[in-house]
Amino acid sequence: MADIPDFMREFDTDTDYGFTPVSQKPAEETSPAIDPKVVENSNLEIAKVKADVIDIKSMMNEVMQIVAEKDSVNKEIQDADVSERFKEIEKIVLPFLYNLSKIPITVAISPEHICLGP
Q1: Which of 36, 50, 75, 105 has its CA 20 to 30 A from that of 115?
Q2: pTM, full prediction
């Protein structure tokens, strides 16, 4: 461990990262071989996935339309409920305000009650 710098002594240097360093390039260069059957199978699988994605998108559009229709119906129902509540409030508040308006109010402010500062 003498060849490790001081700042690296606390770290684990024996960890395998899945690759090893080499001193030179390999002598033989090999190109990866592609099996045509694998490519054809993957093309078929990709086509199936694309078809499934299209089906999912169309289903999602249908669901979104149903949700939008349901939201509009809910909003109409809520608007009707709110207007009914306001009518009930009007039945209570308007007679109160009418009776309140009949009462003569005289405002008398005496100089002792006026506050001009803190």
Answers
A1: 105
A2: 0.35
